[in-house]
Design brief:
CATH class: Alpha Beta
Structural class: alpha+beta
Radius of gyration: 16 Å
Bound molecules: 2'-deoxyadenosine-5'-diphosphate, magnesium ion
CATH topology: Alpha-Beta Plaits
Strand content: 15-25%
Largest sheet: 4 strands, antiparallel
Number of helices: 8
Mean pLDDT: 97
Shape: globular
Number of domains: 1
Helix content: 25-40%
Order of helices and strands: EHHEHHEHHEHH
Length: 159
């Protein structure tokens, strides 16, 4: 393991669940070679929303953001792999789907900043991944296992 074991927090937001995009999101991440080590369907309550989005408290869009994220179930996930946090952010695309490149998740499935399908920990905020994982998951909900294709994803693993 070592440099393949970075973990990041990912969430299929309420719009993704309602629009049947959870499978697409999971498919893209798992086909990239990232490993799903934890997942659950939950409906986020006010307290959890405020904690998760604490950095945005006081901004003009904060109340709408909390209302949206608590409005319907989400799928919370932990994905593991080399440079996982930054790689997932790249696959997500820009925060505003209207600006996101085609080929990214937001660029392929969204049009509106307020409903942008997916959350991933910010790779430019050190510790955000661990903090968000701890907020949504207990340690015993996260699994440690090998994917059989790992030697075909990472060159330094023996076949
Ligand atoms: P990201 O989700 O790409 O990490 P962020 O952390 O800056 O983006 O903001 C969190 C969410 O808040 C974002 O996914 C959508 C919403 N949001 C951000 N900026 C906004 C704005 N200017 N107006 C409305 N909603 C916004
Ligand atoms: Mg963010």
């Amino acid at each position: 393991m070592s440099h393949h074991d970075e973990r990041t927090f990912v969430m299929a937001k309420p719009d993704a669940v309602q629009r049947g995009l959870v499978g697409e999101i999971i498919s893209r991440l798992e086909q990239r070679g990232l490993k799903l080590v934890g997942a659950k369907c939950i409906q986020i309550d006010e307290d959890l929303a405020h904690e998760h989005y604490a950095e945005h408290e006081g901004k003009p869009f904060f109340e709408d953001l909390v209302e949206f994220i608590t409005s319907a179930p989400v799928v919370a996930m932990v994905w593991e792999g080399a440079d996982a946090t930054r790689q997932v952010r790249g696959m997500m695309g820009a925060t505003d789907p209207a600006e996101a490149q085609p080929g990214t998740i937001r660029g392929d499935y969204g049009l509106d900043l307020g409903q942008n399908i997916i959350h991933g920990s910010d790779h430019e905020d050190p510790g955000a991944n661990e903090r968000e994982i701890d907020l949504f998951f207990d340690e015993d909900e996260l699994l440690d296992y090998d994917r059989t294709d790992e030697p075909w994803v990472y060159e330094d693993e023996t076949h």
